[in-house]
Write a structure and sequence with these properties.
Elements (H helix, E strand, L loop, with lengths): L11 H30 L5 H35 L3 H4 L3 H27 L7 H28 L7 H7 L11 H40 L13
């Protein structure tokens, strides 16, 4: 079921503007992320390529932050300036769009958080590097699906319709998960959180233990203090 177009179209322009903003900025963020990832291996090249790789990482971060803010603004304007909420929640297409938008927001938010925590040094660590790319890729794919469902709401076709039809995905039908799938997803998230916390605790304990051992070795009896070289 698709809700009818509202009579007031002036305020809808705010939703259109914010939607175009987050689409453009997050697409730029993902493109910059791909360039930076390729630059890890393609270290040689022209000065133009090396400059492009050097600027890709800060560009991806700034574009992701700006796109994330525009995405949140698009959610607000979509709920307030398009159709009444009671009408929105009766449309399967709108509910699917809300769910996919939640995924896109989560992916890009985690991408920004990981970058702010680890900084540019994450590119020197393969696991963090691929984690960052996976989050950006998940956010970009979710973003394309958001745009596709948005086009359906506007009464237009999407370039992804052929791909989605080939994959057997119908955005007009409400996406549902079985109870077992929900329990499995929640269990996986809980295990991931617990595993991360345990690994962090073990790492902190090992670090503290190594520091204590180093301090005891310095003050051990019979050990000679460090001597300064004579001039």
């Amino acid at each position: 079921m698709q809700p009818p177009m509202p009579a007031e179209t002036g305020r809808i322009a705010w939703h259109v503007i914010t939607a175009e903003l987050h689409t453009g900025m997050l697409t730029l963020a993902f493109a910059s992320l791909v360039i930076r990832l390729v630059g890890v291996w393609a270290t040689s090249g022209t000065p133009v390529w090396r400059g492009l790789v050097r600027l890709a990482e800060p560009t991806a971060v700034l574009a992701a932050i700006g796109g994330l803010l525009a995405l949140i603004a698009s959610i607000v304007t979509g709920l307030l300036y398009t159709w009444p909420v009671e009408v929105l929640l009766t449309s399967s297409v709108v509910l699917n769009k809300i769910a996919i938008t939640a995924f896109a927001t989560t992916f890009w938010m985690l991408f920004v958080v990981v970058r702010l925590i680890y900084g540019g040094r994450l590119w020197d660590r393969p696991r963090l590097r691929w984690l960052s790319f996976a989050l950006g890729a998940g956010g970009f794919v979710s973003l394309m699906l958001v745009g596709s469902t948005g086009g359906h709401l506007a009464g237009k076709r999407s370039m992804l319709d052929g791909v989605l039809h080939y994959l057997g995905v119908n955005t007009h039908l409400l996406f549902t998960l079985s109870r077992s799938a929900v329990y499995l997803a929640l269990s996986a998230v809980a295990l991931l959180v617990v595993g991360t916390a345990v690994r962090r605790a073990v790492w902190s304990w090992n670090l503290e233990h190594s520091r204590e051992a180093a301090a005891q070795a310095e003050v051990a009896p019979g050990s000679s203090p460090p001597q300064t070289p004579s001039r």
